[in-house]
Amino acid sequence: MFLANLRSLGCGRGCMVYACDSEELLTTMSQEPVILNVYDMYWFNQYTTPVGLGVFHSGVEIYGQEYAYGGHPYPFTGVFNINPRDCNELGEQFRFKESVVVGHTDFTEADVKRIIYELGKEYRGDRYHVMNKNCNNFSSDLVQILCGQDIPSWVNRLAYFSTWVPFLQRCLPGEWLTPCVLQNSISQQRQSSNNSSPSNSLS
């Protein structure tokens, strides 16, 4: 229900300004840029780019943080954040490609964090799917909520490839689905759970 309500709002409270047809008010209210950061999946694209094909990872930058989604085998969120455009936090197979300003939003930073939290319930790590629930699907949903815009269609070529090559997901190395920073987060979460378990608390 929460996500459905957010999608109906689109770009947040600023969307109500469209009804007033007031460009000046819209500009005043919708100040924060929503930026899509796109990365080459380098180990794959170095072979396919010459023929016009590519597989890309993306994240959404807003309020100084970049949010993205990755797969893992556990029933909790696969959403993580990194410093914007820091491909070292993703892993050596990622190469930063470009940034695209897709729009602006009037959601506050606190609003955005709540939206990310709610999206994380839908984008669990164990629900990752290379065709219909990948990092670019997450970016698309988040951008739609924040500013009512679509991400460029070429970004989600990972899904396009999987329709032609059904076994592609099994061919991708595990670290492509679980970037380094997400792997670290999972390790910390599991360690925290182990430390708080009854057996550990009694020792």
Explain this structure.
It comes from Bemisia tabaci (Sweetpotato whitefly). Keywords: Hydrolase, Protease. This is PPPDE domain-containing protein. By secondary structure, this protein is an alpha+beta fold. 45% of the residues lie in helices and 19% in strands. It has helices at residues 2-9, 16-20, 23-29, 42-48, 109-122, 135-147, 157-164, 168-171, 174-177, 180-195, 198-202, and strands spanning 32-41, 56-62, 65-69, 79-82, 94-105. Strands 4-3-2-1-5 form a 5-stranded antiparallel beta sheet. Strand 2 (56-62) and strand 3 form a beta hairpin.
Structure, briefly:
This protein is α+β, with helices and mostly antiparallel strands. The protein is built from 11 helices and 5 strands. Helix content is about 45%, strand content about 20%.
